[in-house]
Amino acid sequence: LGLDMEELEEIEEDAGLGNGGLGRLAACFLDSMATLGLAAYGYGIRYEYGIFNQKIRDGWQVEEADDWLRHGNPWEKARPEYMLPVHFYGRVEHSPTGAKWVDTQVVLALPYDTPVPGYMNNTVNTMRLWSARAPNDFNLRDFNVGDYIQAVLDRNLAENISRVLYPNDNFFEGKELRLKQEYFVVAATLQDIIRRFKASKFGSTDSVRTVFDSFPDQVAIQLNDTHPAMAIPELMRIFVDIEKLPWNKAWDITKRTFAYTNHTVLPEALERWPVDLVEKLLPRHLQIIYEINQRHLDHIASLFPNDVDRLRRMSLIEEGGTKRINMAHLCIVGSHAVNGVAKIHSEIVKTQVFEDFAALEPDKFQNKTNGITPRRWLLLCNPGLAELIAEKIGEDYVRDLSQLTKLHQFVDDDLFIREVAKVKQENKVKFALYLEKEYKVKINPSSMFDVHVKRIHEYKRQLMNCLHIITMYNRIRRDPATLFVPRTVIIGGKAAPGYHMAKMIIKLINAVGHVVNNDPVVGSKLKVIFLENYRVSLAEKVIPATDLSEQISTAGTEASGTGNMKFMLNGALTIGTMDGANVEMAEEAGEENLFIFGMRVEDVTELDKEGYNAQKYYDQLPELKQAIDQIKSGFFSPKEPDLFKDVVNMLFHHDRFKVFADYEAYVKCQEKVSELYLNSKAWTKMVIRNIAAAGKFSSDRTIKEYARDIWHVEPSDLKIPPPNEPRDAVEDKTPNGTAA
């Protein structure tokens, strides 16, 4: 048709239906499950408006609605024939036959299916996203001769449930609409799963009633953090109230069905729903949660008589102030497996965050280190590198990333070293052109591309990077003649709209960039770019062009991270703390092939014991003092000298993430980075060692571990014949294995 594919790809909107790592991880998992031939479904909400579009105006973040469906979405298919009712509010009636939830408000859940193709195996799975619809008699049932026009306009109230994604990453906002969203996706999905189970040969009916004994053998449900935790009381409600199973039977089946993945240890991120809100919105579910808690606490009391503090710590209900439901505790009690997402994180989960639960059932707790799909994060975004690797080791590595270890034999191959460097340089030139077009800044493509892209959060310490930029700037100005390894520092990411400090951090980075980029003394030695509206499609551009990946969270705060893995696979070197999956990356590649610096978890704990004193570092480190004084005095904001006083005040008096404590080690480590960058060949050899060690971080490996250790299903690498080839008739009737 004479159209350019790349131009077409630019036009398509991202489906930005998640916030950060957690949503992107689910997308990688769907790709891997299909590629491994697992009969798996991904369920979620079809938000009309996804994560906001970020504009930078005068250095500040401004949010715009993400109207991603404006031009339609060709990949989805509405399935009105599978529409399901979801109930809210109402009250509970008790009778000899059991509890009944009555006088509820009904919202309909309309499914939209998106195909998820496996890689070259003719498997196509389904992602099913629910959209909220008002029933046609909405607000017209009540025989009050009411206002017909108003009743129709009020349909929006029901349909608002799937209107917009809450834009918080690693932060809990206890709003009624958010709880409605969480229950909406759970209630629709469980009805769908049970409908499918009953239609299969396993849902055999005993005269009238379905026999659910085989349910956990046919169905595994993985809870992606606590957001779908209401699935536990909801499945109990279906079994006990509707299917009339005895409680103990229902509970046994429920526990064997669910498994829970924890994604964060930050206390402000843990979901703790007020009891009053749950009682209003989901009265029967609150009763069921109370019953689960009662039996749970009775069990604890029998094991630890008179230990009231243990009962308080382990309760699903937190007393004191407003009573709240601890959703993580509900997930642990209601699941047969609990996992963290990197070795260090899973250790912290076991020994600190949920230590009482792990002491009780140590075998329940596992690790499943996160991964990324090499299809999107190498083949699709970096075809040059993917092709170069295939020339050396064949194409099979795409489905078995562990084969990348074969690259070790080429680490001293001069031609291969040059080719790897050349692919990187081509990617950098291409991205430099993109930056110059979008940001009107002249980029030096031979400078080191130092990239820090992720959600803006204090724990991720973009501020520490910013202090390093100021330090480099001051060194250049102090001695313009000295050798300085040129850098283009690229920082990008969205701040939650209500997160004041994160928004100030964005403004500070832009203010510093404005001064640095316009100082003639600096010239092309140092450029600072804040990458606007960071999202998957932009990550696909910046990651292949990166030389240095910044993974600098305070040790013990980043559960895993997955961007770190994408950079490693795409030929960047990592500067990072011993946190999250960085630990395992260093283990795989050898610590000498990463730039590891700063406090370990033990050091952070030790510093907390003695008390973190930011002033001490400020007094002892002249370059840190200079940088902070410049921020404080208005050097970067001459029109508003005290613009950043909140930031400086935080750094001195309530910095939970101890930026000053790691500053010196970080700057020294950055000097080692610059030194190595001067030796292009040594740098590229280290890059090759990193790529060769990246195999563990395929989401295929992660999913195989979930399948074997938690879901108890076997991945199949059988290639299903394409639809145009006739299959063996007998084979056709064989059930497709167990559903995950």
Automatic annotation (TrEMBL):
Location of region: Disordered: 715-740
The reaction(s) this protein catalyses: [(1->4)-alpha-D-glucosyl](n) + phosphate = [(1->4)-alpha-D-glucosyl](n-1) + alpha-D-glucose 1-phosphate
Enzyme class, broadest EC rank: transferase
UniProt entry keywords in alphabetical sequence: Allosteric enzyme, Carbohydrate metabolism, Glycogen metabolism, Glycosyltransferase, Phosphoprotein, Pyridoxal phosphate, Transferase
PROSITE patterns (UniProt xref): PHOSPHORYLASE
CDD domains (UniProt xref): GT35_Glycogen_Phosphorylase (cd04300)
GO molecular function: glycogen phosphorylase activity; pyridoxal phosphate binding
Co-factor(s): pyridoxal 5'-phosphate
Biased composition annotated in UniProt, kind: Basic and acidic residues: 725-734
An annotated GO cellular component: cytoplasm
Record-listed E.C. numbers: 2.4.1.1
Domain of life: Eukaryota
SUPFAM superfamilies: UDP-Glycosyltransferase/glycogen phosphorylase
GO process terms (BP): glycogen catabolic process
Residue list for modification N6-(pyridoxal phosphate)lysine: 566
Family: Belongs to the glycogen phosphorylase family.
Subunit field text: Homodimer; enzymatically active. Interacts with PPP1R3B; recruits the phosphatase PP1 which dephosphorylates and inactivates PYGL/glycogen phosphorylase.
Primary role: Allosteric enzyme that catalyzes the rate-limiting step in glycogen catabolism, the phosphorolytic cleavage of glycogen to produce glucose-1-phosphate, and plays a central role in maintaining cellular and organismal glucose homeostasis.
Name under which the protein is recorded: Alpha-1,4 glucan phosphorylase
Organism: Nycticryphes semicollaris
Lineage of producing organism: Eukaryota, Metazoa, Chordata, Craniata, Vertebrata
